[in-house]
Amino acid sequence: MSGTEPDTNVMPMHHIHHWKPPARPTPQPPSCFSELARLNQCYDDVQAMKQILSKVMADLIQNDPAIVKSIIEEISKAGTSVPILGVTDGSDAQPGQVGEYLFFSEAFPIPSGNETQSVSLGILPPGDWDVFVFATPSAAISVLYYWLNPLPAGFSTNAMGYQENSAGTTAATVSGIPTRGLISNPTLMAFNIWTDNTGAAATANLYASARRAR
Question: Which of 133, 127, 61, 67 is nearest to 99 (CA)?
Answer without folding.
Answer: 127
